[in-house]
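histidine kinase: structure tokens wanted.
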Amino acid sequence: MAGRIRRRLRPLAILFWASLVLPGAVAAAIAWNNHNRTLAEADARAQQTVSILEEHALRMFEAQLGAIAAVEARIAGMDWQQIGTSEEVHRLLRSVAQDTPHIDGMWLVAPDGHGANSADFFPVPRVDTSSRGYFQALRRRDEIHFGEMIRGRLKGNLNFNLSRRRASADEAFDGLVMVTISLDYLANFWREVLGEGPHSVRLLRRDGEVAAVYPVVDEPPPPLARDAPFFAAMAGREAGTYSGRAEADGRERLYAFTALGAFPAYMVVGLDKETILAPWRRDAGVLALLAAVASMALATLVRLARRRERLLAREVERRRRAEHSLIAKEEHVAALERVETALRRSEERFRSLFETLTYGVIFHDAEGSIRSANDSAAQILGVGVQEMTRRDTADPRWDVVDGQGRPLAPHQYPVVVALRTGRTVRGFSLGTYNPKAGERRWLMVDAVPQWLDGHERPSGVVVIFSDVTEHRRAEESQRLLLREIDHRAKNALAVVQAVIRLTRADTASGFAEAVEGRVAALARAHTLLARHRWEGADLRTLLDEELAPYEGGRVQIEGPSTILRADAAQPLGMVVHELATNAAKYGALSMPGGRLEVSWELATGEPGLELRWTEAGGPPVAQPARQGFGSTLIEQTVCSQLHGSIERDWRPEGLRVLVRLPAGCLTSGRRSGEPSPQARPGVAPDLKGARLLVAEDQAALALELRAALLTAGCEVVGPASSLEEAARLAVTSRLDGAVLDVDLGGRMIYPVAEILAGRGVPVLFCTGFGEIDRPPGLEKAPLLRKPVAAAELLATLAHEIARAARGPGVGTRSGS
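Answer:
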């Protein structure tokens, strides 16, 4: 008998060693997976950061090239004696340097290498730059030269420059125009993008010379060695990532690099690995601690079981010897009492450990019924332990679904699978309804079968699970955001399609004009939402802009003056957009005779806003069989984001919607609406004989503008598709006005606009951006949003040309 007991002890010994090894192995596997995921997320962050810095650098360099072009246009025709003695040229250079935060200075260098004029000194001290790398490079060939970091000879500060030859008719070397770039500006911007931590940024030329570096240094750093990891990583690639240890501070970093467009340079961002992995090390420590606690708990349980087996073996042997005497029997009884006492104490210690675990633990018997559970399980499931033991596994109140939200059959439950197969089920994701919280909770479940010696089937199952609801909600929010972006893009196309289908006209030109006006109204609605992202927005203006495509007597909007808070304007605009899209697809606005009434009032009982949406005259309406993503987005936006409520009444004659918003969505401020740019009473579009410069880089739009102006009798100069061409035409052509695209080939048109304004030529800007900051002196120049209606374009041009003829006014600056 003792031999049988010893044979039973062997599995316990194996279980004992397994309890010491398995939790640590599981924790190590989780930590390794988290380590790789942390590095992958850091890699993505580094690539995103280098893309942001690349875009900023390209815009900065393009602005500097625009400044160089403007200066070249100003000194065209001047010899170097005139340039060196011109205070006007000095003031121009100083104005450009002072108005542009990233420009440290501007220099005009004569063909002999001596400085002729600059933004900082007038007259310029005699400084010979003929030995500088940029001078030698530009003397050999005509290019845009990207300089390395140097210390200025006059100002003594660290900088790098962007320079190019001065334009000449015979293409011979005739000096150069140079812009020096402020390293403090770059360092401040890079610091804001990178945030806290010993991260680094380098702006490198392709040959390894350093143009700029962050953190800031006192002296120009040496160029990268040819065997540096950067050169191996960039071989044959324009962008990528690599790891390496910095020579300057010895820290290991994860680097991301990208080429700066046509410039012979790379932007390199280095994220400090120690900072990246700090949260992972903290989490790994917590995992190690949990694994140690779990190992200790399991080992304690196994040791208690082994001790119990030994006690029982000794007691059996003692009982066999005491069978022949009453004294032996009494001792036997006493020993049994001692064993039971020890067992009770052991069970108490186990119960204490069992109840203090933060994971949910449930014990099932061989039939799958619940026998016991800890308090953590009751809190996670929202069901008391006693209630659990009375529920069957297939009880519908569990409302169990799989990780994708599909109903899970009882035979697929982890506990049932473990009982049926005898194998452990790990990492099974499921959801169950928590009646106390009134919501579904998501669990990560392990089901471990229990065995008794001599049995072919498990004697029960221990289920251990954790609550991963919050983690899942975070992932679901990201997926919802991606779906929202995709859905809103498709909805915008659906509204445009509905406008085209519902537009009626007797002639093709009338149809085109109607469609053009409505599509422009839709574009203005989106511009309003973008412009009011950080300000209050007038509710009526928001509704007018959003419902403008459906005007013509079919839409009626009524309500008192109401200003929405900034954080409520855009969400409510999204709700109105969804309702309007649905009405255009399936409701009253899908038929020519349909009508829509939108009204609102300020609630008197509980402060807030009540907005009513009433459709009539459309096709018969019925409540949809399932809730689509658009309805879900409306519900989430009103109830969760705006903390309001929504009621929908699916009447056959038309949908009625009541939206209630709390007072926190409103503000008492008032804002007067901006006048519509096409509303210019009294101006007749008489433009016959007017010479107009057109600057537009999109070929189709340029042809459309040219055709509209030629039809009105204008003479078109251009169209110019590049900043250099536009600047040349602005200087050399006789002009009565100009139509300028704000973003011309990725470069701002403002240097050309300033040249025209200096000549007294009225300027009209066109753009597809939501908001732009116009340069000083041109803040009130007219701005038209794309797509631009032909009638609006001609009326605005006629108005500006007529005003310019009367004398200097808004949007122009006097000068020759």
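Residues 427 and 445 are 6 Å apart (CA to CA). The radius of gyration is 38 Å.

Cheers.
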